[in-house]
## 1
Amino acid sequence: MTPRRQRMLAVAIVFVGVSIAATLVLRALDMNTMYFFGPEEIVKGEAPVDKAFRLGGLVVDGSFHREPGSLEAIFMVTDNVEIVTVSYTGVLPDLFTEGQGMVATGMLRADGVFVADEVLAKHDENYMSPEVAKMLEEKGHPANAMDTLVEDPT
Amino acid sequence: MWTWFHKLASPPHFYRTATVLEPWLFWPALILLGIGLYGGLIVAPADYMQGDGYRIIYVHVPSSYLSMFSYVTMAVASAIGLIWRMKLAFCVAVACAPIGAAFTFLSLVTGAIWGQPMWGTWWVWDPRLTSQLILFFLYLGYMFLRQALAETRQADRASGVLAVVGVVNIPIIHFSVEWWNSLHQPASLSKLEAPSIAADMLWPLLVMILAYQLLMLALLMTGIRAQVLEREKNARWVGELIGREGRGA
């Protein structure tokens, strides 16, 4: 084997070795790198109890209301499979609307309500002018179908 | 068949080629940057959800793409340098590092500025954001490692191995939004189906990406020329070059 081939092999081994190591590490970390849990996982009991975690999903249309006389916002979040009720007291980001995605950090209360202490809006990868969005809506293809937050209904 | 390759790999020859190429990359980059910014900030319509705030995409996406492109270039050049002991390949790798670090920094900063109004936070430890931050540290690590080693040959090898090892981070950055639940939205451009950006918003973005790409290559030529001069400072051709240019000035 010529020295050059030896070096080529060494570089290839380093590259393959690091790739395998990274794959194994990422697989082992899988649960920890889950940025958020969906309502289905929470209902199934896969989400941590007594520990803060993140909940991600779409805000159910028509579910948002504020408790009279307080800043507490109550809304429901879905992945098109299950629904979880969320309670949050504080200022919501501009992009937070019904039908759009959000990620909340908080804990599950005994009655199954998710009490959030932070709510972030998750926007989608679709970019279009308001006119186009309106046209899509009229044709029955809502522009904000967020495939990364909801399960495929089929 | 390989003569052109060997010729290109000779430092004086590449120095001259880079000198000729530089303005042909730099000026078109500036012109395209102007067209892209005009298209993105003035011609393109506002977004249906994000309003005018989405326009930071015209800086954020090209910077993010170039931050990864520069790293892959650096890693491939380092591998070529390690295997074929080619001096010029290390010059390319060294020149890539500060350019890539700058694009990564720009990508992180514009992302944070976008995240504050849209998500409601400057920063989250989301897989996409975290892996991009690691990319930034890889660039810094590469540059500091070179600084720490006084001997060029030693610095070339050690930093070359670091560059090759770090390339594993690139697919992680790209696929992080698919592999894990993430706050960062998935890719809009590199989908196999049609891009999910309306055509009147898309063309300025593509122009901006091309402009950034040309700008990166122009800066790379400058960086490589500086590296070649630094390494060959005792060579006769450099002396002749300086003497000639000195007389001309």
## 2
Amino acid sequence: MKKRRLTREKLTNWLWGYSMILPLLLGLGVFYFYPVGKVMRDSFYNVGAFNKSSWAGLANYEKMLSDSGMWKSLGNTFSYVLIIIPATVFFSLVLAALLNTKIRGRGVFRVIFFIPTVTMSAAIAMVWRWIFNGDFGILNYLVKLLGGQGHYWLSEQATALVCISLVTIWMGVGYNMIILLAGIQGIPSVYYEAAELDGASKIRQFFTITLPLVTPTLFFVLTTTVISTLQIFDVIYMMIPAKSTAMRYTQSVVMYFYRNAFEFSKKGYASAIAVFLFVIIMLLTLLQMRLQKKWVVYD
Amino acid sequence: MKKLLAILMAVAMLATMAFAGGVTAAADEAVEIHYAYWASMDEYYEQCKAAFEASHPGVTVVLEHTSWGEYWTKLEAAATGGSVADVFQMNGVNITKYADGGVLLPLDDYIAASEVDLANYPEAMNNMYNYDGTQYGIAMDYDTTGLWFNKALFDKAGIAYPTSDWTWADLTAAAAALTGVEEGVYGIAAGYSDQQGFYNTCFAEDGWFVDGEKFGFNEPGTRAGIQCWIDLMEAGYSPSELSLEENEGYLQFMAGKLGMIFSGDWMVKYYASEDSSVSEICDVVEVPLMSTGKRASVIHGKANCISVATEHPDEAWAWVEYLSGPEAMKLMGDMGIAIPSYLEFSPTFFEAYPQYNMGIYADAAANYSFVYPSSAYNTEWADIMWNELVRAFNLEITVDEACDNIMEQLG
């Protein structure tokens, strides 16, 4: 073993290196690590309005166990995951595969599908709220034109969560499509040429070449979508007013966290909810990392 | 690489200079008073600001409007972080929380040393902003509730307009006659509404909501005051709760789709506006008498409070004093913004809308008003009440079940 010696050159290198990442580190420290630590601390305290706090021990976590609102919102969150994840992955993969073929105007289509991603979600929510409106919405107009019966889509128990999921899928497909498209384009063309010579059809090529070789990207898309869906908040916040019958059918864990922290001034309890969600996300992500050996192909 | 570094360093240095420049500039400037408010009255405040700055050289008022939906979240975060506006608008629901939280500057000494006389303001409003014997805010306006009606729909249904002798039975009969008189027209908006709904009927039925740590949802009067709205819902004389959530009652009234609606006085500026299709054909009357032979209206009003953290308490007080004083109060009434809390000038608001019977709002305040229910942990009980009662308004459960659930959760 060589003895590690701090040469002058090394020191200069380190200094440069650290000074380069210092701005990022400072930003992360102030806006990320400190708040994370603060939330973990607060989860063991009663923190009320204006940050007045007192030691609570495990009371916040115990309260969570018997809080029906908490379990309802956890159930809602998993409903979102079950609807949004398969649909987002499926549609973005299909779109990516189709937009990888040499069709006319594919640049235009790529832009069209990507537009929802770069549009302000507040604007998106406003338009969708109008579409879904039970009295004046265009959706009910079309449904009635076809002889169906109108609904208060964003207020009824049976439809509100599905409508929010649809908007979220519509917003998320473009971004994931671009990531998958990049993955597909990274597959060497020799595989396709060989398959072509062997007479494999396009469909066959997709399932035996594209799909296996795009799995590393697919894994990335799946993991990030699961994480972001478990944290679903903005679409609910903008489409469901606090005083809406549908709030209890649609509120996610993060929405419930937000209302506790900022509407009911129960920041300690809200922090416990945040920590609980963090643990769930971590476990699910670890599980996915384990499972990836079974289906992700790295060459 | 060297070139890039040089550019980055230059940018960094420029940023430092810009920062330093900003600091020096701020120190040289006159005193700035930041004023946070939610009510949509920008034009009124612009005029107040201009007049105030003219009479107080060296003081600049910075108006910071936040919409109602975000106002309280933002204000609490700012108060917690120590960056709250010097002066801000307050309401009856939140005053206890803010006074108890030590965020507000006690005003007693300032009031004693100034020309402000609390006797000029409604007693209910002074009490609302007095916590533990200390005055924390001065009311700027007050609100009560009345019954608005669409004359054209009444004519079409061939029934007489509401009068001050009306009982709830008369209202129900009219709602029945009005429903369906035109396609998609309902008699009344009977969805979940507290200040402009069941609070008024409950108080008239001798019900009550909160008194310190006790709650009144077991009181027969409270339940009766809610039941009367549910009866209208069940009879189909009102748009459904879901409809009224997606398209609020006042909008449906303005669109000519509702025969009647309970509305606070501040709604008049919408009903009289160009966007309203009923501005020429609507009017307002006192809310009907309930089974007790009494009527009731909740009274509420906004106030101006000063942050305890302000660096310029004297200038902040000067602004509060100006806003509560005769000049600003008269302007508020003349512009038809809200009922000025300065009693002498309250009628100016009614005179701004001579086409409507606005005087009933002053009668309500003087003769049958009840203070807006509030308690130290208000947000929580109000949310529990909402969660359960909205199910009754959706006709999922009965009023008794909802009230039992509320009492159970409030322990």
## 3
Amino acid sequence: MSQIENVSLDEIKHLVSNRAIEGETMLLNMGPQHPSTHGVLRLLLELDGETIVNAIPDIGFLHTGIEKNMEAKTFQKAEVMTDRMDYLNTVGNNFSYCLAVEKLVGLDVPERAQYLRVILAELQRLASHMVWLGTSALDLAAMSNYMYTFREREIILGILEMVSGQRMMTTYIRPGGVWRDVPAEFEGAVRDLLKILPKRIDEYETLLTKNPLFIDRTAGIGKVSPEDAMSWGLSGASLRGSGVNYDLRKFAPYSSYDHFEFDVPLQTDGDVRARYLVRMAEMRQSIRIIYQALDKLPSGPIRSNNHKFVPPLRSEIGTSMEALIHHFKLWTEGFTAPKGSVYVGVESPRGELGCFLESDGGTKPYRVHFRTPSFDNLQVLPVLAKGSLVADVVAIIGSVDIVLGDIDR
Amino acid sequence: MGLEQKLGEMGVVTAKLEDLVNWSRSSAMWPMLFGLACCAIEMMAAQAANYDMSRFGMELMRPSPRQSDLMIVAGRVSRKMAPVVRRLYDQMPDPKWVIAMGDCASCGGVFNNYAVVQGVDEIVPVDVYVAGCPPRPEALIHGVITLHEKVKREKMKDWA
């Protein structure tokens, strides 16, 4: 076990300005155990009085070796690791990984499965934005929202549990389709949720949007220009808050997102408040998408019937010898993927979540890499925080919506 | 009002000091506000309206280790985080307890690799293990009640 060592100023000389070395500015350590860093982020703040001269993020406190671990598992079994990366967007992680596997081996997904994927991904987006809203408002001392958003999040988690048996780590989306068909009560449960949700979102907005205290804490704080946002590689609401119209669901539609009508909410201010408004509007758009997907939900198979890659249904195993052989082969040695590499990006609640998959022709991925949105969104933090006050750092971290599991993996 | 009328003229209550101390320790246990990974979200859910940990006198999460009695290790502990977790534990005043929430904190979970400490009991003494990946809020509450029962059984002669 390594001991915590006292870091001397010499070791961090390249990170901080000369003024800090001379003792003119103060160095302040924030985290890794801090209630508003949304996990185990450590920030080294250089302060001139209460103004921030520089903010240096120190990550890796949650490094889990997920990408390395996935190389030791077959393509199907590696999927359970993806859930645990961005734990607020578990369905979306499975989604990007499965799309990559499907692209690698050339699998077609039936339309019903595609629609179910969209419904669940949008439900997950709602749940993720609810956690974001609750916690980032909590950081600004608005406690009620946390209670309200977690109340609605429980309903969504109930639906996820209904379809997959797990509240958070669903692994419901599988290469080639989904795990099982949804139960009969699924549609009713989602419709009940959608019926109450617009009113509940109004309720959240009543508490915050026009609240003068909230406006004071958010408007004009943590500004980023559209050019900066693009060159820093921001994505998701952090990019759209600066007025850049980029949403993968619209511009590179996957899994039949082009069948649905929805808008990409934009704001031009590029500050904390703009990012807040974008996410609130996104929640309403998600509701629109889920309504359309439910109305148009086709019947039919829920996974591809290419049994070289996709296990046969449980019911077939008892009656068909061939199904039994396929099942046995898939769950012992797995399937082989052709040599090559693919990249697939999906729009996660935080931005572009990309999965890069390289295969050497075996049954296990040779290399898996995730281009995670939180990682790229975090690196802009020094730009956002420079010149603002210490208390604003909390608002800024909340507004870029980082998940440390997503950053460190 | 209520209690006196029910019990009549009850001016004095006698009890063993051991029971009284254990009762008070278990009824207002302040957890440290300290989340690591996925389990932290379920810990927050356990604090929120639906599960409401304030029923057990635990609604007050202290972000400072100096003011807390209970450390809920919610999530996987990486090698980089391990010295920090130990330091936080050392900073907590006695008496203190630890709950390892979830499979990763209990035994490493699905992550048997170079980066994750295989169970937080390698670095801090754990009182209660809660299984699940992540455990449901009910499971965490069950773990907390189990800990309360354990605290109520503590013996005076064992206090440091």
